[in-house]
Amino acid sequence: MFKNIAIAFMCVGLFSGCASMAIPGDSSCNTGFLECVEEPREVQLPTYKKLRQLPPAKTRPIVAVYKFDDLTGQRLSSDGQASFSTAVTQGAKSLLIDALKAAGADSDPAGTWFRVVERGFGLDNLVRERQIIRSTRDSYATAETPPQDVQPLLFAGVILEGGVIGYDSNIETGGNGARYLGIGTTNQYRRDSVVVSLRAVSVLTGEVIINVQTYKTILSVGLGSDVFKFLDMDTKLLELETGITENESVTWAVRSAIEAAVYALIEQGDERGFWKINYPLESDNTTPGTVDGTNTENSNNNPSTDKKLEEDNENEND
Q: How far apart are the first and last CA of the chain?
């Protein structure tokens, strides 16, 4: 009876799939025995938080993004064979727009930096929808109520170009292991990398005014243990094996590299005078009543200064 129950549980575990099985000790899987259903969550990487904490811009530039594609040509490898799936995400443009809108969003949820206008394939849908609005207003227009004009579209002063230009796998691999009397443990790691290029092009002159490149590593770690031992006068074999592998998300790595590129783009633009970052005044460097940062309170309380003033007053009285 017990043997049949054990076989049944093994069959359930094998055919239910790894995605729904709970990892022992995982606090996020509380839905049931051997079952895990993870809730969706918002991803806030360190670069995302740093980008949101930027001070606001003095004048918000209007930018457009036509294309921001995967330029690596890398294919996802599986067991040494390339597949039709790409190694990096094909939605880098959406990640770039999200990073542009997130700049300085701590002080304003709508963002305090770039005003991003819709371009690329979405522009056709936008123009078509505006034509529908015009035709609808013309249909309901009368002599007393003429049709209202559609608000003109914003034009961009800067076009952002670039893409994911590099993806290198297995740039660093390693690991170690140990085994004693049939009991062993191993650990391995692998390091990949992704490179993102972002440049700002002036619409008036066509000149590339800013160009930045960012680099992000992608780590993969695997741990494993096994037992291979003969028991009962070498008549019975005990074999156990367990392990776990954790891979850093390539999409998250691309997103982090894009956010770092936007941050570097803002800093370079401020250094070269294309826009201005409104840094808050630091109260530690200045004091009330002064312009150059000197502390008038300390000078008034200086004993040597007070003594000198008293001597000057005595000489004048004499």
A: 118
